[in-house]
Write a structure and sequence with these properties.
The chain is α/β, with parallel strands linked by helices and about 575 residues long. About 30% of the residues lie in helices and about 15% in strands. It contains 18 helices and 21 strands. The N and C termini lie far apart (about 50 Å). Bound molecules: 1-deoxynojirimycin (NOJ).
Amino acid sequence: MTKTYTWPFLIAVLLASCTNQPETASTSPEQTESAGTWWKEGVLYQIYPQSFKDTDGDGFGDFQGVIEKLDYLQSLGITMVWMNPFFESPLVDNGYDVSDYRAILPRYGTMEDFDEMLAGLHERGIKFVLDVVVNHSSNEHEWFKQSRSSRDNPYRDYYHWWPAEKGDPPFRRSLFDPEGAWEYDSLTNAYYLHYFADAQPDLNWENPKVRQEVYDIMKFWAEKGVDGFRMDAFQFASKDTTFPKWPEGHEKDFIKWYGMRPQLHDYLKEMYEEVISKYDIFAVAEGAGSTFQDAHDLVDADRKELQMAYHFETVDMARTTDGYTLAEFREVFSRWDSAFVDQGWIAVFLSNHDNARLVDRFGNPDPAFRAVSTQMLNTFLLSMRGTPYTYYGDELGMTNVDMPNIEDYVDVAAIGDYKAAVAQGRDLEEFMQQLNYYSRENGRTPMQWDDTEYAGFTTGTPWKRVNENYREINVAAQDKNPNSVLNHFRKMTKLRTSNPVLVYGKYDLLDDEHPDIYAFTRTLDDEKILVLLNFSQDTSSIQLPGMVAAEEEPLINNYPSLEVAGNTYHLAAYQAVIIKIK
Ligand code: NOJ
């Protein structure tokens, strides 16, 4: 079967070659750099604002919608919210094309609404993480309008330009545009660079004025009270601006050639100095380089750069309908964990707005297994070391939608992939089958609040089709059921946030060859917790000599009971248990 590779997948190929595994050591907050850091101890919930809750009937989520759901957010037991971009934008890439970094897109509300939302979160003990999209801006940003207006405009060097009289610019791949990353602009007879869509010109980070503009924007939001920054596509910010010709096939090593230039670290140190160090704030990078060394160089505390990163190797495991194996899953998570035992910190996630739904990719969306397999995955995410990130709707087990026709897609990435498939003469039926499975549109459908029309998301016409299964999968129904996916999620956040062993405890993998069960312990000082997760739809058993439960009842169990005989644990389909060990 032909595989469809999107850009995060290419990144993952690189990361898969990281094999350095430092020795594990017993960790406790006192012994490591981890001590007392709120963003390590928290649970992050990601809101895609466009799809969360609409209150004015325009079919588009808004800040007042989030305000209406503040108590729901608090009831989840989460401690941080990361919200995708809500700034002024022509929405070519749903807000990842910002035309004014200090203005709110009116569809979301006003700055007063933002302040009210932020205050409401803070009152409930929830921190706010802002999406900072500064590898590129929108082509409708004033900087770009000025920049393209003439070759001697003071903003010319805010972007990367290649004068046409020098001939064709050296090839650069674009992640969204099959025609490449240089776009010709006749106004000044020059090409500009865009690693993403042509409406997203890359900012020139080598220009100190650009960097200062970015720090000023970050300070503006920090002064408003945001608690964290998520740095979009940040590993690509710094480039070799001599634009040499690169060897054939270079685009397969995307990070090495396109990003992570050494000077990126100087800029991050500068950003730390100018912004991060001045507030009780953290910054998380989208992307962690292509080696563990790269990742450590970004996030280790003594570097004074960023505080956390997330890598793509795990989410990219299940990017095609071929799926993934438990062996791969366990190996990837264990390898990344072992690389961050003593230094640095990473996020743990399996889904976000750039991916299809958690249960479709890593669990089992069959109605017989959807709930238990989502509970199992949420148990995993919330018991692993690293800050857990949950994407809205995954606390309910929301699923993919069926979109077999390209005409139904609006996402710039999906359309770019389709154009590339056409240009390459691929089998389009097979391509559409894959797109329907992996497309990020699957993860952007309206939140399913109840079983009324449009799932209670809007009184108007939703910008995106609501998943037909909203009558069964919705907050109102799950709220009432103590065994629902939602209530399991709440139990897990409570366990996580009240047990430092789940945050800082040493991770040890058990029985790394088991075909179905992922078993590991977390240990902190004299506390030990056993996590058992059956990744299969069949019952499965695991022998664990020496693992004696300290209490009769497991701390977490997504089934009414657990069968144990001697040192053998029998797990039902997708059963997930957490047991305190003597
Ligand atoms: C990464 C974001 O997560 C994605 O949604 C966006 O399309 C690209 N960066 C470009 O900003």
